[in-house]
DNA sequence: AAATTCCCCAACCGCCCTAAG
DNA sequence: TCTTAGGGCGGTTGGGGAATT
């Protein structure tokens, strides 16, 4: 038995997925839907562990993934959410439809982190008070995870307002401007990918302009009572009279979503609810021999507007479950310059 | 054109949580 | 109550393409 397990494990493949493996997993998922990943790996005829299959599906094969570069609006939202949630990538991803936690994490670690570092350096040159301070400020750790290190991360209000300006633009462009998908992303994405994004926008619209909640920072009345009481309404005053939030060293231990009164996302399971019949329908109209790495092609997001519509509609249904949560979050966000994250 | 460096991102690793037995 | 397996998550790594020398 034990030897058998070892034998099986030793046969398991690692590393990059081949198109054939993608095809196997995709086919299996389309016909059977989700289940026990270990079984999926076995039944699909893959020499992979269940974990590997799950990761591949979530990060790459899922039909509702948005492709292409992050839009400036998405970037701002990531920055903003990260300032509140820290490195809770899955929770951030749950609020960015079509994006995976891995994708956001990579984007943060490569692009945003760097950009932020630059901004901080520039600000340091201009003002005596750093925007981000660190107990052990010497290197890249100056932008380390506030959740895991003993870092005091102070975001001043002027910087916060820059975000707000972006977010204000985002609230209108993401929810009202249909040109968003074509204008805001990398020029290299295909028209099909753009249409996927447009489909995504259909349900983004359903949030009733959630980002508008971000705009009114200076209105204390927006601060939820639970936040004021749980955090004692403490305000950190900076050198220039700016207010900021403090991310404490043990913030990860305090269960941020609880302390922030973030209700759990009902649709937090990043894996989508599959309409197997519908997907199969699309799937059967395409040659399985085509390179599966362009998985989205298999789902007919291309030229058929009806497909876009139904795809969007389905996602609307799925996402509406979490609508209240996002709004609640945004209420939290709207107040965060005045919050003090109490450290245990 | 070749060599080297940079850096993005896919995927693995390890830890934690939860449910089942 | 303890053990085990599976799933989820965040941190990290290394391959490989792009950029630079």
From TrEMBL:
Major localisation: nucleus
Transcription is among the record's keywords: yes
Domain HTH myb-type, first and last residues per copy: 9-61, 62-116
PROSITE patterns in the cross-refs: HTH_MYB (PS51294), MYB_LIKE (PS50090)
Keywords: DNA-binding, Nucleus, Repeat, Transcription, Transcription regulation
UniProt-listed PANTHER family: MYB DOMAIN PROTEIN 55, TRANSCRIPTION FACTOR MYB83-LIKE
Signal peptide per UniProt: none
Superkingdom of origin: Eukaryota
Subcellular locations according to the entry: Nucleus
Pfam families per UniProt: Myb_DNA-binding
Name by which UniProt lists this protein: Uncharacterized protein
Transcription regulation keyword on record: yes
InterPro entries cross-referenced by the UniProt entry: Homeodomain-like_sf, Myb_dom, Plant_SW-associated_TFs, SANT/Myb
Organism: Stylosanthes scabra
Domain Myb-like residue range list: 9-61, 62-112
Phylogenetic placement of the source organism: Eukaryota, Viridiplantae, Streptophyta, Embryophyta, Tracheophyta
């Amino acid at each position: 038995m034990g030897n058998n397990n070892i034998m099986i494990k030793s046969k398991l493949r690692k590393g990059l997925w081949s198109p054939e493996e993608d095809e196997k997993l995709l086919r299996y998922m389309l016909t059977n839907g989700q289940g026990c990943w270990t079984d999926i790996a076995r039944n699909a005829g893959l020499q992979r562990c269940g974990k590997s299959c799950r990761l591949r599906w979530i990060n790459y094969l899922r039909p509702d993934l948005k492709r292409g570069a992050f839009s400036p609006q998405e970037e701002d939202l990531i920055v903003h959410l990260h300032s509140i949630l820290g490195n809770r990538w899955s929770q951030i991803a749950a609020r960015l439809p079509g994006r995976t936690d891995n994708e956001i994490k990579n984007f943060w670690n490569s692009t945003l982190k760097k950009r932020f570092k630059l901004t901080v350096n520039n600000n340091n040159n201009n003002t005596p008070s750093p925007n981000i301070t660190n107990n052990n400020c010497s290197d890249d750790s100056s932008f380390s995870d506030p959740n895991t290190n003993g870092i005091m991360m102070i975001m001043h209000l002027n910087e916060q307002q820059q975000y707000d300006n972006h977010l204000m633009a985002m609230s209108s462009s993401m929810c009202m401007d249909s040109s968003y998908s074509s204008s805001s992303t990398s020029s290299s994405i295909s028209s099909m990918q753009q249409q996927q994004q447009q489909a995504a926008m259909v349900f983004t619209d359903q949030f009733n302009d959630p980002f508008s909640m971000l705009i009114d920072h200076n209105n204390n009345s927006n601060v939820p009572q639970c936040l004021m009481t749980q955090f004692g309404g403490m305000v950190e005053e900076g050198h220039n009279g700016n207010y900021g939030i403090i991310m404490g060293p043990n913030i990860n231990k305090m269960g941020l979503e609880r302390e922030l009164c973030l209700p759990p996302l009902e649709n937090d399971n990043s894996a989508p609810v599959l309409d197997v019949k519908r997907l199969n329908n699309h799937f059967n109209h395409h040659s399985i021999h085509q390179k599966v790495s362009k998985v989205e092609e298999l789902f007919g997001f291309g030229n058929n507007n009806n497909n876009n519509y139904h795809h969007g509609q389905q996602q609307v249904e799925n996402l509406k479950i979490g609508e209240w949560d996002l709004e609640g979050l945004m209420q939290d966000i709207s107040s965060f310059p005045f919050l003090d994250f109490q450290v245990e």
